[in-house]
Amino acid sequence: MKTRSTLRSFLSASLFTSIALVPIAAQDGAPPAAKRRPWMDAPAEQKAHWEQQKAAMKILDLSQETHRQVFIARGTPEDYHAHPTTAMLADNRTIIAVWNLGHGGHAGPMARSGDGGLTWRRVDDALPPNYSNFKNCPSLYRITDPQGKERLWIFAARDFQNYQHREILPQDFAGPRAVVDNRYKLVVDGTTGSGRELFDLRTDPAEKTNVIATHPAEAEKLAAILQTWQRSVLESLTGADYR
User: Taking the mean position of all CA atoms in its chain, how far away is CA 147?
Assistant: First the structure.
C-alpha cells in the first residue's frame, strides 16, 4: 500500500516544533511483508511488560488542531516524504528540518524556518551535490567543537555494512553483562569465572544472595531476553538492520 504523506510541523506556544508524517490517502494494493525483528521473539511476559509501559505513555493528539499545523512538504502517491528530524538553533527561533524520499530512501530535502516554525522555505541547494546518494533516515545534530564553533551535522547511511565486523560470532555474546526485569536481575560473568548469578531485587536490593539455584526458570527467562537484546545490537553493528 502506498500512502501519500504530508510533512507538517506542530507548533506550541514556546515555538518548539516537532515534525510528523500524516497519512492523507491510500491506494489499493497489498503492503510489503514486514521484516521480522528480534524483539518479536521476546518472551510473552516481556512483551506484556512492554505493553504496560506503552499504555502508561501520555499521548497528545494535535491532528485536529489545524491552527497549529504548518505544511512543510506535500507528498503524492508516488512521492513519499519520510523520517524527518529537526534541530533548533541557539537563537530559539531558527529550525532546520531534513528528511528523505521513500521509506528509508534517498536523502535530499532540507527546509529552514526563521520564525520558530510558522513559515518554511526549502534550502535543498545548500547541501553537497552527492548528499542525495545517501539513504536511510538522515539525522540532524548541533555540535560544538572545542573552540566553541557550532556546526550542523547530518548523519545518514548508504547501504551500510561494517567491514570490520562482518558477521555475528559466538564470542560477541561473551563478557560481563546483566539484565533486569520488574523483580529479578541476572548477572553473567560479573567477575571473571563467576558465571550466572540471579538476585531478587525486591527482597535483596543490595544483591548479596544468589538465588539462581532456587529460581532457575527466572534465570532462563532473563537469559533469553538478554540474548535477544544482544542479537539486536549485533545485527545493527554488522549492518544487517540496514539491508
Answer: 31
pTM above 0.70, yes or no: no
The DSSP-derived string for the chain is --EEEEEEEEE-TT--EEEEEEEEEE-SSPPPPPPPPGGGGS-HHHHHHHHHHHHHS-----TT-GGGEEEEEE-BTTB-EEEEEEEE-TTSS-EEEEEEETTTTEEEEEEEESSTTSS-EE-GGGS-GGGGG-EEEEEEEEEE-TTS-EEEEEEEESS---SSS-S--GGGG-SSEEEE-SSEEEEESSSTT--EEEEETTT-TT-----TTT-HHHHHHHHHHHHHHHHHHHHHHHTGGG-
φ, ψ for residue 74, nearest 5 deg: -100, 130
Strand-pair partners of 184:
200
Which residues of the chain are under the pLDDT cut of 70? 1-35, 158-164, 192-193, 239-243
Q: CA-to-CA distance for 56 and 52, rounded, in angstroms?
A: 6
Q: What is the pLDDT of residues 54-107, one digit of tens each?
A: 888 888 888 889 888 888 888 888 888 888 899 999 899 999 999 988 877 888
Strands 184-188 and 81-88: unpaired
The vertex-208 CA angle with 226 and 171, nearest 5°, equals 30
Cα distance between residue 197 and residue 210, in whole Å: 6
